[in-house]
Amino acid sequence: MKPREIAYKILQEVLSKEAYANITFNKYLKGQELKEIDRGFTKELVFGVIERKYTLDFILSFFVKKAPDLKTMIFLEMGLYQLLYMDKVPSYAAINETVNIAKKVLGTKRANFINAVLRNYEREKERVIFPDKERDLKQYLKVTYSYPEWIVERLLNNYDEEKAEELLKSLNERPEICYRVNTLKIDIEDFKRLLDSYGIAYKKGYYLEEALYIDIKNPESHQLYKEGLIYIQDEASMLVSKTLNPKEGDTVIDVCAAPGGKTTHIAQLMKNSGEVIAFDLHPHRLELIKENCKRLGITNVKTEVFDSTFVNEKYLEKADKVLADVPCTGIGIIRKKPDIKLKNYTRKEISELIETQYKILDSSSKYVKKGGFLVYSTCTIGKEENQNIIMKFLKEHPNFKLVDIKVEMPSGLSIETDSRYVQTTPLEHEIDGFFISKLRRIK
Ligand SMILES: C[S@@+](CC[C@H](N)C(=O)[O-])C[C@H]1O[C@@H](n2cnc3c(N)ncnc32)[C@H](O)[C@@H]1O
Question: Which of 368, 392, 388 is CA-nearest to residue 380?
């Protein structure tokens, strides 16, 4: 299959079945003997269309009277994306190649329609009237940076207009891929020497010594990955386990653990001693933790299928440290998972999610020993899923108090506003947008 046809198939699955873009991309690319350049092109087209969908659809609305069927729409979006954002693809190739694949997949009639719309756009771009920032800020932000309304509203609810806009912009940037060095298998300096000997370029982490930005393509098929020397993980996510600060011999419970990024980091920080108990609601996701532990040589993790909105009576007051890295809207990781933009949460769904987050935190607190610690984290931005949950928790649990997070953070990480929490963002910290807070059980 040609790259544009593969891209179409992936997009069709993601947009019609709400499949995860990363997983679907890997699934379709697995059997294909694509050259590196074609793989890169396919990736750019798939993730680019997802990332810019709201902008693309807005522009297309000036050239199609009635929204066409999903399959036709995907070809229009792919064609327009190439015209607007892929400088290296000449316009004639963007249109002709896309139309040729459309003819093969959808037949001549729909291909002719796609051809006409894309050519009309090329001829009459000035027909598009973009929203005016002064007159309709929300629509302007939505169309300019390509976001659904709920994300625009969330950021405007939490930041002033200028910062909200900067954040939306920064979440569209393509991040470098960060890796955690598995110090259970190799010393960090030895690992750097190994990279040098392979001639692989890397850059130090911004905040953490175990974080490295390594220049490798298709990491999961790389020898370094297969041997368990690295784990793909953003520095913001690593900061969570660092904040928990587990010690050798501790008992730690990670209540929403899959696929195990933080669980395996915790195990690593504990030098594979003590015990890490990892819960998750989904059995198939717990399998991912087991696979990761095997690859990384970790033996102190025990997994258990459990719904963490409930209390697991076996573990009452048993843990030195508990991590509640709860399910969330994921705004902070849009750079890596642009398909988060495709979710159209209703207010009711967000309220239900917030309720779940609170229940998980509440239940998790029951596992903490007196004097022990509880870390609450999300990979999203906004007080609704973060500060508000903690404030409510503190009101209802006088036996817990907040730990000053500034003391817990690496010195280079600036915390501007409130030292009780940390909210990282790609805009301010160059890493994903995570919220972290730490509580101590005082009685
Ligand atoms: C943010 S992810 C966790 C990421 C993980 N901590 C890591 O670092 O790799 C949230 C996880 O919570 C799980 N989950 C959702 N609802 C849950 C519940 N009620 N009880 C337990 N796990 C739940 C999801 O399956 C998902 O794996």
Answer: 388
